[in-house]
Amino acid sequence: MEYESNYQKLCVTWRERFLTWDHEGIYKNLNLQGCRPGFLDILYFGRPYRIDRGTGIITNLQDPEDEITFSTQMAIYHLFYYSKEKPRNSGEWIPFRQVKGAAPFESAFQKMVLEPFAQSFSGKKELLEERGRELGFVRINRGDVGFYAEAFPCIPLQFIFWDGDDEFPAQANILFDKNITDFTHEETVVLIAEEGVDRFLGKKTRR
Fold first, then answer.
1. Position 52 pLDDT exceeds 60
2. CB–CB of 77/68 below 8 Å?
């Protein structure tokens, strides 16, 4: 319970920080639509969320009773807080290990993101294709199954899967724009990727 309460306390801290920010300036800097009097609207993996500008509370517009996970809250708050002035995507795709500053989080990324992704869909690439289509992700010609998705309109990802055989186990990779840390913290990239994989798995990220 203490472990959960620490996550909850951190969410409250970021919620309070959010109240002090220049919301109009942030949305203009990120070229986002949805800055309105009283609230901010944003898409996260294709789902619409709303942030109350008076309280900082985030709501899933498709399911207002949905409890917003720690990972989703951090992804949204960190996008607003860590984005640089005039951030721009490069158009160059790189694996996580090449993301600037990501080295300390490489082990966590492998364990929390890539391994569950590969193992969950081993021998089930048709299911992966079906899940990707249901999520509205765009099929790309990478690996045995590949999808392009947008965590946020300014943070694109590529999910790539190779099925296993008698000699080699299934493998997976996720590519990011080279400039992703212009938009968020490098540790937050792990949370975003994990939530993307969990969308494929049809489950909610535990944190």
1. yes
2. no
Residues 114 and 193 reside in one and the same domain: yes
> Which residues have CB under 8 Å from 17's CB, separation 6+?
77, 81
Task: Give ∠ CA 61-18-11 in degrees, rounded to 5.
Answer: 75
Across 29-39, b (16+ Cβ under 10 Å) vs e yields bbebeebeeeb
Q: How far is CA 147 from CA 63, 98, 110, 128, in A?
A: 25, 20, 19, 10
pTM for the model: 0.93
Confidence of residue 1 (pLDDT cuts 50, 70, 90): very low
Which stretch of DSSP H or E encloses residue 182? none
* Alpha carbon distance 41, 61 (integer Å): 9
In a domain, 207, yes or no: no
Report which secondary-structure segment, H or E, holds 184.
none
Q: Among the three residues 82, 108, 130, which one is the final residue of a domain in this structure?
A: 82
